[in-house]
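INTERNAL AUDIT FORM
Audit reference: QA-55
Scope: verify that the stored structure record matches its stored sequence.
Auditor: D.O.
Record contents follow.
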Amino acid sequence: MKFSPEKTTSIRQSGRFDHYGWLKGPLWLLVTGLLFIPLAAPAQVFWSVTDDSGRQNWILGTLHSDDPRLLDWPQPLVDALQKADRLALELKPDEAMAERLKQAMTCREQSLADRLPAPLLERLLTVLENDYRHDRDSADQLCLWAAALTLAAPPPASGMYMDMMLAWRGQGAGLELRALETVDEQIEFLSGLPDADQVVLIEKALDERDSHDALFNELVEIYLEGDLEQLALLSNRQLEKLPAHIANYFNEQGLEERNRRMLERARPWLEQGGLIIAVGALHLPGKDGLLALLANEGWQLQGIY
């Protein structure tokens, strides 16, 4: 169902944010944007999670982007933020998280020039300089996974990602903010691929620069329709362009393992009630998705939109 103006509350905010400081948005895009997730649930992105004792929780699939269309929220989500006691995100967006991520992205002992062939290095540094406004010297110090991460999403316009706005709105409503993962856990996942595979991700991102804007516009439009099936199909098309072993790594480590870990962290808060879980939309569906995992534990799920 398309988000209509009469059913949404506009929560827009302007201003530019340091790209490194809030790179969690592209981080999640790299993880979820390449995953195929077989569906076993209706195509909705916001769900009520209850049990027979009357405990009320919610789960929201988000899109980690700063597209302003994503900051117009349906009224049921606004209402849930007023009723909830705590909000659990993949990461808690604070200065400590941003600083840890910025430090981890820099590989001072070995530059990109030491690890990439000259033609590929020049292509990469030119894009980072012209499109992402990174000076060449600092860009050359990026880790391979961090370079791939930076290229995984279009250059940020405002830097106000949907997840960050959720955190700010939740804090404003007096909710406790919780993290379902740590920055180090996400960094370990992204840096876990061999260097050769990380180079493949860089090459793929550079080769598809011309189609980036169209791809992300399609991604946002599908999300606004609440169509998880089409999101999965779009992700599948991206995944098919990768070698099978890289695709399997993203599927097994980036999806299945992370879903189990996030549910384990969320379980005690779910038992208290009043929890909103907000994670990338592609973590919800499939037999190993959070919706199925919650149902297997006896929770009753009902789609809201």
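Auditor finding: record pair retrieved intact. The beta strands are 8-10, 46-50, 56-62, 72-74, 86-89, 176-179, 275-280, 300-303.
Action required: none
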